[in-house]
Design goal:
mainly alpha, Helicase, Ruva Protein, domain 3, 6-stranded mixed sheet, globular, ATP hydrolysis activity
C-alpha cells in the first residue's frame, strides 16, 4: 500500500521546492554577477540562464498560489511571485540592452539545460482576474447597460437555469402531444374510412352576415366607451367623484409632451445654453456679468402671468389642462435639465458620467474575450544555428506571444510589478494586415481585466473638434483610465497620427498631445498605450519613436507555425483531420500568407453544408488551396520595407537617446 498525498500537501511541496530553487538562484547570482566580465557572449549566457531559471520558478509558484486554499500561505506566495515576475522583467531589459533586440535565440542554452521550448512560455497568473472578478462582472453589466441604452448593442435576454428547464419541458411535452395527436388522428381516419359514415356539412355565415355581425360588435364597443366617458365628465362636473383618473391622464400627457420636446428641441436648447453659459464665463472673467444668468429664469413666471390674464378659456369645460401652455411649462423643465447637463460638462465631472460619455462616444469599447494562448504559433528551433551561419533569423509567433506577456500583461496585472519593474508606457505592434495585432490588444485586456479605450483615427474623427475639445477628450480618457485601472489605450492605424503630410486636422492633431499624455502617467498608473500599424514606413520616425518606447514587428508565420495553425483552425471550426488532408503540404503552399488569411480560408471551406458532409466526404488538401490561390500573400517587397523601417527605427532610438529594442531588425 503506497501512502497517499493530499492535494494541499502536494502544492505545499511545490511551493517549498520553488523556494529552495529561488534561494539557490539568488546565491548563484551573488557569486557570478558581482565578478566583472568583459566577454559579452558570456554575460548574455549568464543573463539568459538566469532568465530561464526564474521562468521555471515562476511556473511552479503560480500553480502553487492558484491551488492552495490557505489564505495566509497564498499571501506569502503572492509576494514572492511578484518579486520573481519583477526579476524576470529586469533580466529581460538587460538582455535587450545587451543585444539591442527584443527577440533572443537561446535554444542552445535550453538544450544544455535539457529543457523543452515550453519552459520559455510565460504563464499568465490566474489571480489577475480572480482577485477582481466581482468588480469586472459589475463593470461589464454597467457597460452592457450603457451600450444598450445608447443603441450600440442588441439586447440579449439571459434566462435562468430553471427557466431553461421549463422551456425544454414545455417543448418536449408539446412534441409528445403532437405525436400522440397525429397517431390518434390516423386511427380515427382509418376507422372512419372503414365505416364510411355519412357526414352532414354545416355551412357557416355568408360574408355579408359575418361583416354585419362584426360591425354590430364594433359599434357597440365604441358607443359604450363614449357613454362611459360622458358619464365620468358629468360626475366630475357634479362633484360626485374625484378627478384622479383625469389627473393620471394629465400626467401621461405631460410626460409625452416633455419627451417630444426633448427630442425635437433638446439639441437647439443645449447649443443656446452652451453659448449663454459660455458668455457668462467670459463676462465673469472681465467683470461684466451684472447678474444676467442668475435672473434669466424669473422672466418665465412673468410671461405666464401675462398670458393667463387675457386668455379665453370658454372652450375648456373640464378645466383639466391646456396642451400649449403645458408645452411651454415642460420646455422650461427640459431647459433646466439640459442646463444642469451643460454646467456639469464645464465643471468637475464624476467618474460615472465620464465613463458613460466615453462609452456613448465609442471611445471606450468592450474588449473581445481572447486569451493569449489563442494566438497560436510555434517556437523557432533554428535561431542559434542561423545566427552562427551569419543569417538573421525571423522571430516566431511564439516569440511575439512571449513579448506581449512580458510587456503588456504582467505589468498591467500586478500593481507591485508595475511600480517596481522597468516601466513601459507605450507599445507598438507593427506588421502586415492579418498577423493578429488587434487580437493581441484584446488578449491583453482579457488576461488583465483592463478597460479598452479606442483612440484610433476612425474612432475620433468628427468628435471633440478643436484644440480645447482634444484636450478635454484626452483628459477624460486619462482620468477614467487611471481611476478604473488597469486600462489599455489603443490607437489603430497609428501611422496616420505621425504622417509625413503637413496637416493639423484629423488624427494628426494627436501628434503633439500624445507625449504629454504619456508624461502624465506615473509608475503607479497601470495604463498602457498600444498602437497598431500596417504601414510604419508612412510615418515620421523621430516623433514616432519618441512615443513608442517598445516596437514589436510581427512577421508572417514560418513553416512550423503554419503547420500548427492549420491544425488548430480546422479543428476549432469543426473540421476533422484525416489521411486525405496533408497539413505539411498546406503549410508549404501557404508560405507568405498571414494567420488571418488562413482563418478566412478555413471558414470559407467549412460551411454548414460542408460540415454535414464531413462523415461521408472527408476534407481534402485541394479544397483549401483553391481559396488561397485567390488571395494576395505578403510579398517580399513588403517584408523588406518592414525590415528597412525597423532598422531606421533603431537608428532613431539611438538619436533620441533611448535604448529599447526592436522586435525585427
Amino acid at each position: 500500500i503506497y501512502p497517499t498525498i493530499s492535494p494541499e500537501n502536494h502544492f505545499r511541496k511545490m511551493w517549498t521546492d520553488a523556494q529552495k530553487d529561488l534561494d539557490i538562484q539568488l546565491q548563484r547570482e551573488r557569486e557570478e554577477f558581482l565578478q566583472p566580465e568583459q566577454d559579452l557572449v558570456k554575460v548574455f549566457r549568464m543573463l539568459a540562464t538566469s532568465y530561464i531559471k526564474y521562468m521555471q520558478i515562476f511556473h511552479t509558484l503560480e500553480t502553487a498560489h492558484d491551488q492552495l486554499l490557505h489564505q495566509q500561505k497564498r499571501a506569502l506566495i503572492r509576494q514572492v511571485l511578484d518579486g520573481v515576475i519583477g526579476r524576470i522583467l529586469e533580466l529581460k531589459k538587460e538582455m535587450v540592452d545587451l543585444e539591442k533586440s527584443e527577440v533572443h535565440y537561446i535554444d542552445n542554452i535550453l538544450e544544455d539545460l535539457r529543457l523543452l521550448p515550453e519552459a520559455l512560455e510565460v504563464p499568465i497568473p490566474r489571480y489577475f482576474i480572480k482577485e477582481q472578478l466581482e468588480v469586472l462582472q459589475q463593470r461589464e453589466k454597467i457597460l452592457d447597460q450603457i451600450l444598450l441604452e445608447a443603441g450600440l448593442q442588441e439586447p440579449v435576454e439571459a434566462m435562468t437555469f430553471e427557466e431553461a428547464i421549463k422551456i425544454i419541458q414545455v417543448a418536449e411535452r408539446a412534441r409528445q402531444g403532437r405525436c400522440r395527436a397525429a397517431f390518434m388522428n390516423r386511427i380515427y381516419l382509418a376507422e372512419k374510412r372503414a365505416k364510411q359514415p355519412k357526414v352532414e356539412i354545416k355551412m357557416g355565415l355568408s360574408p355579408d352576415d359575418a361583416a354585419t355581425r362584426i360591425q354590430k360588435v364594433w359599434r357597440g364597443c365604441v358607443q359604450r366607451k363614449k357613454t362611459e366617458s360622458l358619464r365620468e365628465e358629468e360626475m366630475v362636473f357634479l362633484g360626485m367623484v374625484s378627478s384622479a383618473a383625469l389627473r393620471t391622464q394629465t400626467r401621461d400627457d405631460e410626460i409625452a409632451i416633455k419627451n417630444k420636446l426633448r427630442e425635437a428641441e433638446g439639441l437647439n436648447i443645449k447649443e443656446t445654453l452652451q453659448d449663454q453659459i459660455g458668455q457668462c464665463f467670459i463676462e465673469s472673467a472681465v467683470g461684466k456679468t451684472n447678474g444676467f444668468c442668475n435672473f434669466l429664469l424669473l422672466f418665465a413666471s412673468f410671461w405666464i402671468t401675462a398670458v393667463w390674464q387675457n386668455r379665453d378659456e370658454g372652450w375648456d369645460f373640464l378645466q383639466d389642462h391646456d396642451p400649449e401652455l403645458m408645452k411651454e411649462e415642460k420646455r422650461e423643465e427640459v431647459e433646466n435639465e439640459i442646463r444642469e447637463q451643460v454646467w456639469m460638462s464645464l465643471v468637475h465631472r464624476t467618474i460615472d458620467s465620464l465613463y458613460k460619455e466615453l462609452v456613448e462616444e465609442e471611445l471606450l469599447i468592450k474588449a473581445k474575450t481572447v486569451h493569449l494562448s489563442d494566438y497560436v504559433g510555434e517556437y523557432s528551433y533554428l535561431g542559434t544555428t542561423l545566427q552562427q551561419a551569419d543569417r538573421e533569423p525571423v522571430p516566431s509567433l511564439a516569440d511575439i506571444r512571449q513579448l506581449i506577456a512580458l510587456y503588456g500583461i504582467l505589468p498591467l496585472g500586478s500593481q507591485t510589478v508595475h511600480e517596481k519593474a522597468p516601466l513601459v508606457k507605450a507599445l507598438l505592434l507593427a506588421g502586415p494586415a492579418g498577423v493578429g495585432k488587434k487580437m493581441l490588444v484584446h488578449a491583453i485586456c482579457t488576461e488583465t481585466g483592463a478597460n479598452l479605450f479606442n483612440l484610433s483615427a476612425s474612432s475620433i474623427t468628427g468628435k471633440y473638434p478643436g484644440t480645447s475639445g482634444l484636450k478635454m477628450m484626452l483628459h477624460m480618457v486619462l482620468k477614467v483610465a487611471k481611476q478604473l485601472q488597469p486600462s489599455v489605450v489603443w490607437i489603430g492605424d497609428t501611422e496616420q497620427i505621425f504622417s509625413k503630410a503637413a496637416s493639423k486636422t484629423g488624427p494628426k492633431r494627436l501628434e503633439k498631445m500624445l507625449p504629454k499624455f504619456l508624461k502624465a502617467l506615473r509608475a503607479p498608473d497601470r495604463v498602457l498605450l498600444v498602437g497598431t500599424t500596417n504601414r510604419p514606413f508612412d510615418a515620421n520616425l523621430k516623433p514616432f519613436c519618441k512615443v513608442y518606447q517598445k516596437i514589436i514587428v510581427i512577421p508572417r508565420p514560418d513553416y512550423a507555425s503554419r503547420f500548427v495553425l492549420w491544425k488548430h483552425i480546422i479543428l476549432q471550426n469543426g473540421g476533422a483531420i484525416t489521411s486525405l488532408l496533408n497539413l505539411s503540404c498546406l503549410a508549404k503552399v501557404s508560405d507568405g500568407f498571414t494567420p488571418g488569411q488562413l482563418i478566412r480560408a478555413v471558414q470559407a471551406v467549412l460551411t454548414k453544408l460542408r460540415l454535414l458532409q464531413m462523415s461521408r466526404k472527408p476534407l481534402r488538401t485541394d479544397e483549401f488551396i483553391g481559396f488561397l490561390a485567390m488571395q494576395d500573400p505578403v510579398y517580399r517587397e513588403e517584408e523588406e520595407a518592414f525590415k528597412v523601417t525597423s532598422r531606421a527605427m533603431l537608428a532613431a532610438f539611438i538619436i533620441t537617446g533611448s535604448k529599447p529594442g526592436i522586435g525585427l531588425c
